[in-house]
Amino acid sequence: MEEEYDDFDDYEYFEDEEDDERLELAQMALDRGESETALDLVEEYLEDHPFDVEALNVCAVAATNLDDEIKALALYQKALRLDPKNGAIHHNYGVLLDRLERRGEAQIHLRKALEFQPDFPEAYVNLGNVLDELGETDEALAMYDEALKRRPDSTDAYFNKGHALNRLGRFEDALACFSAALRMEPHDASCLNGAGYALAGLGRDEEAVRHYGRAIARDSGNPHFFFNRGLSLMRLGRFEEALNDYDAVLALDPDFFDALMEKANVLADLGRLEEARTLLLEAEQRDPASPEPPFYLALICEREGDHEGALGALEESLARDPDSIHTLNNKGSVLMDMGRLDEALGCFEAILERTDIYPLAHYNRACIFALQGKTADAVRALSQASRLEPHFLQDAAEDSDFDNIRHRSSFQKLLLRRQSQESGG
User: Fold this and answer.
1) Which of 4, 75, 196, 274 has a CB 3.0–4.6 Å from the CB of 211, allowing a cystine?
2) pTM of the shown model
């Protein structure tokens, strides 16, 4: 009688097939956003194949999605020990390190990803994001351009490039980026918000409000969309609507400090000064070190004609943020209103020692010199202000501070010369 033996080779074949299927199912679950399912499947697979780099990567991505960063870090480190030239692993590890705000390390691994996979558009985008966070915005912009060379339809690259350009104040270029992204994804809420911000920066607040509205229609849970629309509405003088937006921001995020400040500001614009003051006291309790509550309190005091109160609040704000040019300018303006011209002049000259391109300081110096009857100094300062912002000449033509020198020929010539230049004569 012959004995029968199992064909172990066949069993191993079927086991391998089942394992491959399990790993494939894990990847499919991950692609569907079912990270818990993916994690269960891939961890079973790793029990039998602990050195499979692809499986370690899938497991790390799933763990990251489930906010288990410690597990994900350990998995990526193990995978890189097994395969140190794997660009995808370096990329994913770099993205996780960026998420953990370990940006120096993130930059190293994202650069390694590109060393091993130089045609990896996502790596260029994510490296650009890290560089931008590190203040290397010019290099970040170059990374976004590299991504777009390899994938011209990358909405992520256009979005992140537009975001960086907005922060640099290059609003025309930013708008072009967001417009390109919106041609591909016309309903993307973040791109609509970015385009709105660029439009607002260009002084096109009506268009900005429409873009913010479309962003909010797509994602009403993002407080930043309401906040940005509120700023544009304020500039348009639509204060009640702005107030509604700031209320929406604070309903979504009660700790949104800037929204609290802007709500106090708009309440003051509406003449609801006591409500604004109460809000500023609440803000002061939340962040006693912030220079903003006393800064806005000074504006309320000015509205009430309380110059001493305004001056005290501005000095408190400057004690908390001595480098604030805006606060120093407002202090100078209050001192002017109090007739303390020499002290006011000291404020404006202190600003110009830090930067020569703050036109309001030049204009305010011109006002002081005019009040003091110093025509040549006033004309010189007004000329400097108008070179930076031409509208100051029209302001001076109507400003009573210049009444003492209005009849002077040099003042008249300055106004006429600028008018001639504007008319192309």
Assistant:
1) 196
2) 0.81
The rounded Cα 68 to chain-centroid distance in angstroms is 28
Which pLDDT value is given to residue 39? 87
Amino acid at 70: I
The answer to whether the Cα torsion of 364, 365, 366, 370 is positive or negative is positive
> In the chain, what is the straight-line distance between the N-terminal and C-terminal CA atoms, in Å?
118
Q: Collapsing DSSP states into helix, strand and coil, what is residue 332?
A: helix
Which domains does the chain possess?
153-253 (1.25.40.10), 255-355 (1.25.40.10), 370-424 (no CATH)
Looking at residue 19, its pLDDT comes to: 64
334 residue type, one letter: V
Q: What is the DSSP string of 51-96?
A: T-HHHHHHHHHHHHHTT-HHHHHHHHHHHHHH-TT-HHHHHHHHHH
Amino acid identity, position 362: H
Measured in degrees and rounded to the nearest 5, phi and psi for residue 54 equal -60, -45
Q: H/E element holding 290?
A: none
* Residue 164 CA, distance from chain mean position: 8
Token reading at 315: 């000095």
Structure token digits, residue 112: 């390694």
Q: With a cut of 70, which residues of the chain have pLDDT below it?
A: 1-19, 418-425
Cβ 422 vs Cβ 390: under 8 Å = yes
Q: Is 362:384 a contact under the CB 8 Å cutoff?
A: yes
Report the distance separating Cα 364 and Cα 378, nearest Å.
9
pLDDT in the model for residue 420 = 62
Closest CA to 129 of 100, 153, 161, 155: 161
pLDDT at 26: 83
CA atoms of 349 and 334, how far apart (whole Å): 15
Tell me the residue type at 204: R
